[in-house]
From TrEMBL:
It comes from Trametes pubescens (White-rot fungus). The keyword Transmembrane applies. Its main location: membrane. The lineage of its organism: Eukaryota, Fungi, Dikarya, Basidiomycota, Agaricomycotina. It is found in: Membrane. Keywords: Membrane, Transmembrane, Transmembrane helix. The keyword Membrane applies. This is 3-oxo-5-alpha-steroid 4-dehydrogenase C-terminal domain-containing protein. It holds the Pfam family Steroid_dh. It is a multi-pass membrane protein. The chain crosses the membrane at residues 20-40, 52-71, 91-109, 121-141, 161-183. GO terms for cellular component: membrane.
Amino acid sequence: MPDVQASQALYDLARKWFAIIPPIICPATFAFDAPFGRFTPSQDSIFLVDGLRSWIFMELISPATFLYAFLHSPLSPTAAGTAPPLTLSHPPTFLAALFLLHYLNRAIVSPLRTPSRSKSHIAVPLSAVLFNTVNGSLLGAYLSSPAAHAYLAGAFSSPRFWAGVAAWAVGLAGNIVHDEILLNLRRTAKKNKAKVAKDGDGGAAQEKSKGEHYAIPHGLLYRYISYPNYFCEWAEWLGFAFAASPAPSVASLGAFFATSSPPWLFFLSEVFLMFPRAWRGHLWYHNRFPDYPKERKAVIPFVL
C-alpha cells in the first residue's frame, strides 16, 4: 500500500508553497510581460516555440496529473492506490468531471478552433507545465481525499453546492463566448489578409501580417472591461471552490495556510497571476488604439 503519511506530507508542502508563491510573484509581473500572445518578442529566436502546440501540451498536463492523483486516492488511509466511485452521483467525481470539461475546452477544443496563434517563448510552457503539474495533482488528491468526501457528503441537497456549480457553469460559458469574440476578430483578419494576397498585394500583406489580427473587441462584457474572458474564468473557479470546499480562515496567516484547500488556492493563484497581465494588456490596448473606449476597466466591471 502506498505510504499515505508521505503523500500527506508532500501534499501539505505543495499546498503551502502554492499559497505562498503566486502572491510573491504577482507584484513583479506588473513590471514585465510574459512573452506570449500579443507580447511575443518581435525578433525571432531559438527560444520561441510553436504557440499552438506548446499551448496544447502545457494545458494537457493539468488534466493528466489531476486524473492520476484522483484515480489513486493518495491521501486515503483505507483506499490509497484505488479510485473513488466513478459515477456522477458521487459529488467528488461530479466535480472532477467539471474540472475535466473545462480542460477539454481549454486544451483541445479552443486551440484547435484558433485560426492563428503567435509563437511563445519556451519559458512560458515550461512554467505552465510546473504550475499545472502542482495544481492538477493537488486538486486530484483533494477531491479523492477523506476530507473532501466528508465535506461533500449530501452535497447534492446543499444550496451552497449548486450555487457554486451554477457560478462555475456561467463562468465557463462566459469564458467561451468572450474567447469566441476574439477568435472571430482573428478569422476576419485572416480572410482579409488572404483577399489582399489574392488581389496581388502580397508584399503589403506580408508587411502588415505581424499583429494584424489585433483589433478592439466589442460585445457583451467587452462593453465594460478589456478582459472579460479572465473575469469569467475567475467566476468559474470561484464557483468551483465554493462548491468543493469550505472557504479558508482569515483569522490569521497561519490559519489561512492551515485551512486553504486546493480549489481555493487555484482560484487565488489565478487572480494573482492573471491580474497583472490583464492590467498590462489593458494599457496595451489604450496605447495601440487611440480610439479605445476610455470607460472600459481592465478586468472587473466598474471597479478595476
